[in-house]
Amino acid sequence: MALLSGCGDGDAERIEQQRETWNEKHVTSYVVETCATGFSAGCRRVAVEDGQVVAAREKSPSDNSPWSDIDDLTNVDEPIAWMFDRAEGTPDDCELSQLSFDPQFGFIREYFVSCSSEGSGERVTCFAPDTVDLAACE
């Protein structure tokens, strides 16, 4: 897993290449757990089948808080595509200061966007291929 600091203009091309790798290699069903970094907080565990979110849970940043099911999946983005879009859409006045990819499937493993004194990002903490059982990431 490569980690870049002080990412530059070549990142857009690299992100697009990795998106192509993901599109070629991804499995049709998977569970992915992501946690926000920086000023954002919380984690989500999402089951995806054929590109559609089929189940999701979320947890607040407190280590003692339980996971809670998300009943309305219409507002839950497919996390891998969302991370690609977020990293590619870094505003001009911000910097993509961290970026790493999964060596097997090509999805973004972690990104961080710095804007002045604030920043936010996302980190994949679990990826379980060939399942939609959210317990695969427990």
Summarize, please:
With 138 residues, the chain is an alpha+beta fold. It is built from two helices and seven strands. The radius of gyration is 15 Å and the shape is globular.
Written account of the structure:
The protein has 138 residues and is α+β, with helices and mostly antiparallel strands. Helix content is 19%, strand content 39%. The protein contains two helices and seven strands; from the N terminus they run αββββαβββ. It has helices at residues 10-25, 79-88, and strands spanning 29-38, 43-49, 52-59, 68-69, 95-101, 108-115, 118-129. The protein has a seven-stranded antiparallel sheet with strand order 4-3-2-1-7-6-5. The longest helix has 16 residues, at 10-25. It is globular and about 35 Å long.
Distance between the termini: 23 Å
From the spread of the alpha carbons, the general shape counts as: globular
Uncertain runs: 1-7
Number of E strands:
7
What percent of the residues sit in helical stretches (DSSP H or I)? Answer: 10-25%
Rounded mean pLDDT is: 87
Question: What is the strand content?
Answer: 35-45%
Radius of gyration: 15 Å
Report the structural category.
Answer: alpha+beta
Largest sheet: 7 strands, antiparallel
Number of helices: 2
Strand order of the largest sheet: 4-3-2-1-7-6-5
Q: Spell the H/E element sequence.
A: HEEEEHEEE
